[in-house]
Design a protein that fits this description.
alpha/beta; 5-stranded mixed beta sheet; 38% helix; elongated
């Protein structure tokens, strides 16, 4: 059943084999044996692809519940419930992961040596259930989801710009002044909404540079290319070093923006995940905000160059 569930999620026999330490041929034989036992075809296979059938999808819903209940049953009767162990797969945004999550993970690894940790730092929005993660860290305002969410820390969106930009252009006093400024736009959101004294002010912004990557726009802001709207945790270190200044600090730019831990919506949480969520909540409450820093190698007041990465 575990093999069947992983093949349904990954749709690649070689990948599942590498993950479970089995050959693709063994994976295929296990699936064939399961199909023969059920007298039904679970997957449509070609030389290039594998796709779950309608019967397979129906069976998958039951299998996922069985595997989840089996894991909880083992944890419930285990003598190690108070000393959780196992593998914990985590996904977190790249910048937040390097500057905030990384020291937390290091401390957690020391406190819980029986838990193996696999953490991926990526700005890509991952699918927790299909990609096999136990918990995903995200920032911003949450959309509706079937996942459970634990609020770890407030992380409002703020506007910042480099001192060099603000010296050349008169800083905006009200949101409507942004129409006369070069704005660095993240994604397709060209309307920035501001809140003050229970009043809402939407402003259409424009600029020469737009990207789906917040870190790229942060570097552009450091180089003086314009005003950018990013999460406070992402730019707090730059503000402390004087590399960026906050713009329109008296206006709120996003509601309910925070750092969140998302995890499967099940009646019971496995011990390894429970202790991690509790630990992360304490970390953000007690230490994260006082220790957030973005390491900048360039001299004060000068924007750093983006590091080159092999193969990019």
């Amino acid at each position: 059943m575990r093999i069947f569930a992983r093949v349904a999620a990954v749709q690649n026999l070689s990948s599942v084999g590498a993950e479970l330490g089995l050959t693709p041929g063994t994976i295929s034989k296990r699936l064939q044996a399961l199909e023969e036992e059920l007298s039904v075809r679970l997957f449509d296979r070609t030389t290039r692809s594998i796709r779950i059938t309608e019967e397979g999808a129906t069976f998958l819903g039951h299998v996922e519940r069985i595997l989840c209940e089996l894991s909880m049953a083992r944890a419930a009767v285990s003598a190690n419930v108070n000393n959780p162990k196992g593998k914990l797969r985590i996904s977190a945004p790249a910048t937040l992961g390097r500057n905030v999550i990384a020291p937390a993970i290091s401390r957690f690894a020391s406190d819980f040596p029986a838990i193996d940790i696999h953490i991926d730092l990526t700005d890509r929005i991952v699918n927790l259930q299909e990609e096999g993660y136990d918990v995903v860290i995200r920032t911003g305002s949450l959309e509706s989801s079937t996942l459970k969410a634990k609020r770890l820390a407030d992380d409002p969106q703020i506007l910042v710009a480099a001192p060099t930009y603000l010296e050349k252009h008169e800083p905006p006093v009200t949101p409507t002044d942004l129409s006369h400024h070069a704005c660095l736009v993240l994604g397709e959101t060209q309307v920035w909404t501001f809140h003050r004294n229970n009043e809402e002010t939407p402003v259409r912004v424009a600029g020469r540079l737009r990207s789906d990557n917040g870190e790229l726009l942060r570097y552009a802001a450091l180089d003086g290319h314009g005003i950018v709207r990013l999460s406070r945790l992402r730019v707090l270190g730059d503000i402390e070093r004087g590399l960026l200044r906050q713009v329109l600090p008296d206006y709120e730019t996003a509601s309910n923006s925070a750092v969140w831990a998302l995890y499967p919506s099940t009646p019971h949480i496995l011990p390894k995940l429970r202790v991690f969520l509790d630990f992360l909540g304490r970390w953000f409450r007690n230490e994260a905000e006082s220790k957030v820093s973005v390491r900048v190698a360039a001299p004060r007041g000068r924007a750093p160059r983006m590091p080159r990465r092999a193969g990019v």
